[in-house]
Amino acid sequence: MTQLDPVLAELAGRLGVATEYDDWVGTRVQVAESTLVAVLSALGVDADTVEARVNSAFELDRRHWQLRLPPTTVAQTGAAAKVWAHVPHGSPARVWVRCEDGAERRDVRQLENYTPPFDLDGTLIGEASFALPTDLPPGYHRLLLCSDADGNPWEADAALIITPAWLGLPERLGAHRLWGLATQLYSVRSKASWGTGDLTDLTDLAVWSAARHGAGFLLVNPLHAAEPVAPMEPSPYLPTSRTFANPLYLRVEAIPEYSRLGKRGIVRRLRDDVRRRDRKRGLIDRDAAWAAKREALQQVFHIKLRAGRQVAFAAYRERMGSALNDFAVWCAIAEKFGNDWRRWPAGLRHPRSHKVAKFADKNKRAVAFHRWLQWQLDEQLAGVQSAARQSGMALGLMTDLAVGVHPFGADAWALQDVFASGVNVGAPPDEFNQLGQDWSQPPWRPDRLAEQEYRPLRAVLAAALRHAGGVRIDHIIGLFRLWWIPTGAEPTAGTYVHYDHDAMIGIAMLEASRVDAVIVGEDLGVVQPWVRDYLRARGVLGTSILWFEHDQWQGGAPLRAEYWREYCLSAVTTHDLPPTAGYLAGDHVRLRESLGLLTRSVEEELAADEADRSAWLAELRRVGLLPEAPEPDSEPGEEPGDEDVAGPRARGTTPLAEPGEEEIITALYRYLARTPSRLLALALPDAVGDRRTQNQPGTCDEYPNWRMPLSTPDGRPMLLEDLFRDPRAAALCEVLDAATRSGSPAPGSDPSGGPSAGS
After folding, report:
1. Beta-carbon contacts of residue 33 (< 8 Å; ≥ 6 apart)
2. Which of 104, 173, 344, 584 is the most exposed place for a label (fewest CB within 10 A)?
3. What pLDDT, on the 0 to 100 scale, is given for residue 227?
4. How many DSSP H helices and E strands does the chain contain?
């Protein structure tokens, strides 16, 4: 490896920027100097030259000593924690805590600290250390500092966040397991839909799965806000805002004021036009659906609210505060100047400019419309969760939190001082995406998050959990480290930037604990082994996908069901893979080959895929979920020997006869039910035999990502009404219901709610 400039390496280390890392096959990779310089620049540090690096190191020291208290201190309940304070050298210092409820704690104990003073512009600044009480309650508290330097008061206050040590599952679940459907809502349409699935459809799906089949939760794709004008970004994982929702999911007819609309014929014609065009398309057209729905929503918006409804709307606006106003203003400006705020007139590019305030005042009606839309979404989402719980779901709705936001969008505009510029978030190469991924999202700056007391993170989490019993955090590894790619560089030319995971995970746990919700972390891909141990120790569930569960101690053979993780949401497949029917047929390999995403020959990929498929079939046969098949060298009726237990993967042979697709899929879900995992997910496409993947990572326009409607095995769009009558769907639901309704605890579980031995 080439020796890095030691000052550059020091700067990178101080800011959590990795100078080397292990790739997905275990090879140590040194990060290019150009990457480090670009990433440090995105963090506000000039590292272009040796002289600039020395100056930057000194400036970092100055910034540290200018602080009187850390911007934010995060600690766990019951754990020892300390905090530093900077005061004029030799001056006494007092630190105390003001709790969230107003109570004050003076039992903060000063510790010995022998750190030499720092000369800050001619004034010697000393450092004092204090031990915080270990019995502080969870919550958002304040640290206060007071010192008297030669008769001049020296004061400061800063955030102190105390997080739960353990989250786990809600106590009402006991040791029981739950199952639920995993769905992409836009793809699930009914006869009453406007081209895409909506929140009434989601309600009906929740009620059907809970009341008929005993489902305990319903996992849905991110419902985050998209652009207000075409083109609307199809990916729910690249939203314009994660704090607000997409009005495309509103059911117009479910808004209370719709009943008082005098010209309902206009709305019906708009809806019928969408349906008529929809029947002619094979793909979902969000732009057309939103254009019609927006016009209808405008009609309803003009209906005057009754007194009680006015009070409710005012309460919502007050609760959401300035964030709602910023989002509504962004939407109104976007309608006039387009979705990319970076191309707006210069005076409109920052939310606090006087020209933005002037625009908002001049366009009050447009701004009010977008505030009203978010209120309607809040009410309809509340209705989904209420119906789900009333139908018997223990958790109800489980929302999905995207890893980031669109670089042109509302959050990037409103929170641009928190986001890094000149870099994108992505992922390094892994087994299934061997060229790496660039998600085009701007990352949060770790330093700015701390400076803002993690309020942006808190707002996003609170929004995700407001009407939900759980949240799935996409790419939860991003709360530990994120792959930063300099703008214009290949995804392989990035590096990891580390975050304060104790703070990020702890805040997520605090928000979830306040609403008695569960957190599921999507911990797939390139993950350091200790990360999963850490999440388990904090009571945050992981994610297991059957196709990725291999036993590394057995040459990569399928991991036996009894060895799967207990504190986990487990599934056969995910939205980034084909539905199981397509996966069994090798569709994912052929698709990636057609798109130029393979780094080895298609023959090698197909052979590896067939070996893995055969291994899983052998495992299903081993546990009796599929019948044994005769081998090519076996006589009819001959019993296999002991050597056959390993299956065709080990021998390089293929059974003469194989079961059908539906039989295999059923067997896979029965296998899933044998794992100790506390949450089991049934992908809705699997339930109906759909084949086409919703998303092919590594593509944008090359493949119609996020545009596939829920379809039958032969590719015909399936409506919600058809799903409710589908025997295949009912049968798969019953497989998981039978596994979870028995009332028996998960193997190895501890009914007390804490970690169990050996889990």
Report:
1. 4, 5, 8
2. 104
3. 97
4. 22, 27
For all residues of the chain together, what is the average pLDDT? 92
CB 529 within 8 A of CB 542: no
Task: Give the CA diameter of the chain.
Answer: 99
The one-character DSSP state at 84 is E
Residue with tokens 């009680």: 308
Read off the pLDDT of each residue in 270-297 and give the average, rounded to a whole number. 92
- The residues, any chain, with a CB within 8 Å of residue 93's CB and separated by 6 or more, are 85, 87, 110, 128, 145, 146, 147
pTM, 2 dp: 0.92
Identity of the amino acid at 550: H
Cα 297 to its chain centre, rounded Å, is 29
- Return the axis-axis angle of helices 354-362 and 364-390, rounded to nearest 10°: 80
Q: Supply the pLDDT for residue 536.
A: 97
**pLDDT tens digits, 14-29:** 999 999 999 888 899 9
434/302 Cα distance (integer angstroms): 52
Does the pLDDT at position 37 exceed 90?
yes
Q: Is residue 590 within 8 Å of 201, Cβ to Cβ?
A: no
| Distance separating alpha carbons of residues 445 and 296, to the nearest angstrom | 40
Locate 614 and state its tokens.
């055969």
**Strands 118-120 vs 550-551: parallel, antiparallel or unpaired:** unpaired
Residue range 177-400 in CATH 3.30.70.20: no
Angle at 206 between CA 720 and CA 383, to 5 degrees: 110
- Report the C-alpha gap between 268 and 25 in whole angstroms: 57
pLDDT score recorded for residue 756: 38
For helices 6-14 and 50-66, what crossing angle results, to 10°? 30
Element (H, E) at 592: helix 587-594
CB-facing half-sphere around the CA of 250: CA atoms within 13 A: 30
> Can you tell me which residue has the tokens 């939900």?
468
Gap between the Cα atoms of 488 and 100, Å rounded: 45
Contact 368, 298 (CB under 8 A): no
DSSP designation for 646: G
Rg (CA), the chain: 28
Tell me the C-alpha distance between 202 and 384, whole Å: 7
Angle among Cα 122, 125, 127 to the nearest 5 degrees reads 165
pLDDT surpasses 50 at 7: yes
Relative to beta strand 72-76, strand 28-30 is unpaired
Computed from CA positions of residues 110, 113, 119, 122, in that sequence, does the dihedral angle turn out positive or negative? Answer: positive
Per DSSP, 613 falls in state H
What class is the 78-163 domain? mainly beta
In degrees, rounded to 5, the angle at the alpha carbon of residue 33 between the alpha carbons of residues 30 and 34 is 125
pLDDT for residue 1: 64
Q: Are 178 and 212 in contact (CB under 8 A)?
A: no
Pairwise CA distance, residues 240 & 222, whole Å? 12
User: Do 497 and 444 contact (CB within 8 A), yes or no?
Assistant: no
**Tokens of residue 1, six digits:** 């490896």
Query: pLDDT at residue 759 above 80?
Result: no
Do 731 and 666 form a contact (C-beta atoms < 8 A)? yes
The verdict on whether omega for the bond into residue 231 sits within 30 degrees of 0, i.e. cis, is yes
Residue 128, φ and ψ in degrees, nearest 5 = -115, 150
Contact 201, 185 (CB under 8 A): yes
- What is the Cα–Cα distance from 15 to 11, expressed in whole angstroms? 6
**Pairing of β 568-571 and β 679-683:** parallel
Domain ranges for the chain: 78-163, 177-400
Are the C-beta atoms of residues 384 and 251 closer than 8 Å to each other?
Answer: no
Residue 647 predicted with pLDDT over 50: no
How is 103-141 classified by DSSP, letter by letter? -EE--PEEE---PPPEEETTEEEEEEEEEPPTTPPSEEE
| Fold agreement (78-163, 177-400) | no
d(CA 315, CA 313): 5
